[in-house]
């Protein structure tokens, strides 16, 4: 499934999080990969329709998912079109028993 969280109105974000959780079986080792962008922009209405900071992803996902990796996207891999802002690639695992060494 591909979704652009910054395109969803904030009122739908908790539904997005619930939907991702429902796609994962409770006893599985599901991996979720997020490309978080654009980050570091002012929240003044410029940029994508509904920007959010990295903390917003944690607020939505930390109840069920554990971020096991997060790193800045190299400049040569970044979007060449669209708005400005930082980009981070994050890997999340379902549950809290997984360590980052097991990626």
Describe, in plain words, how this protein is organized in 3D.
- The structure is a single chain.
- With 103 residues, this protein is an alpha+beta fold.
- The protein has one domain.
- It is 18% helix and 25% strand.
- The protein is built from two helices and three strands.
- Strands 1-3-2 form a three-stranded antiparallel beta sheet, with helices on one face.
- It is globular and about 40 Å long.
Secondary structure blueprint with pairings:
Blueprint: H1 13-23, E1 31-39, H2 54-61, E2 65-72, E3 86-94
Antiparallel strand pairs: 1-3, 2-3
Unreliable sequence segments: 97-103
Whole-number radius of gyration? 14 Å
Provide the residue-averaged pLDDT.
80
Can you count the helices?
Answer: 2
Q: What characteristic shape results from the CA principal axes?
A: globular
Overall tally of structural domains:
1
Strand content: 25-35%
Going by helix content, strand content and strand pairing, the class is alpha+beta
Distance between the termini: 21 Å
Would you count the extended β strands for me?
3
Strand order of the largest sheet: 1-3-2
Please bin the fraction of helical residues: 10-25%
Helices and strands, in order, run as HEHEE
Largest sheet: 3 strands, antiparallel
């Amino acid at each position: 499934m591909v979704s652009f969280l910054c395109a969803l109105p904030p009122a739908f974000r908790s539904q997005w999080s619930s939907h991702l959780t429902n796609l994962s079986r409770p006893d599985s080792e599901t991996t979720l990969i997020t490309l978080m962008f654009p980050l570091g922009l002012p929240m003044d209405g410029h940029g994508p329709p509904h920007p959010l900071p990295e903390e917003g992803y944690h607020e939505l996902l930390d109840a069920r998912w554990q971020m096991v990796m997060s790193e800045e996207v190299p400049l040569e891999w970044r979007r060449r079109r669209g708005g400005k802002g930082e980009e981070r690639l994050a890997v999340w695992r379902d549950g809290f028993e997984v360590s980052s060494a097991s990626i």
